[in-house]
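Catalogue entry: protein

Sequence with per-residue tokens
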Amino acid sequence: EGRQTINNITRSASLFYLRTILTISVAILAILINVRFPFIPFQVTLTNIFVGGLPSLLIMFELHDYKPKYTVLEHVVLYALPSALGIVTMWFILVLFNKPLGLDLKAIQSIIFFVNGILSIHLIYRILTPLNRFRAFILALDIAGFLITSIVMHPLLELVSFTQHHLIILV
């Protein structure tokens, strides 16, 4: 039971630390370069549900009685930090080069919302690898939930309609 608890905490911590590292880094950079925080509260809530809450809850139902390979801090550094830095770097690049890229603040906000979702779901994939049926179900549920909710809640998320130009930048 002790190993199971430690493994659950370790895997869930990486998901929650991604959000923490991302929020603190973006907030500090936004203050330093004097721009708006790129996410509205509803966008943060949506990503927290599908990146932190739901996977962490479902992961606890799987038996993890193997000896942990990493400490909690090592796991966070190996998993959450690269994803958070990727999101922050993409946002920073979009803010710095918004004029040459022809992007307004709403377009940047929409693109970074999906970059955040994609890299966060990639983190979930990395944590769940190797996939079995249950883990694949968790991953599929997260992807479907994020996409369906993004489509259905499009107006509340204040996302712009993507043009081909936006999609190219997103990819």
User: Anything to note?
Assistant: The longest helix spans residues 2-33. The two ends are 42 Å apart (CA to CA). Helices lie at 2-33, 41-59, 72-96, 98-101, 105-128, 133-152, 154-157, 164-170. The chain is about 80% helix and 0% strand.
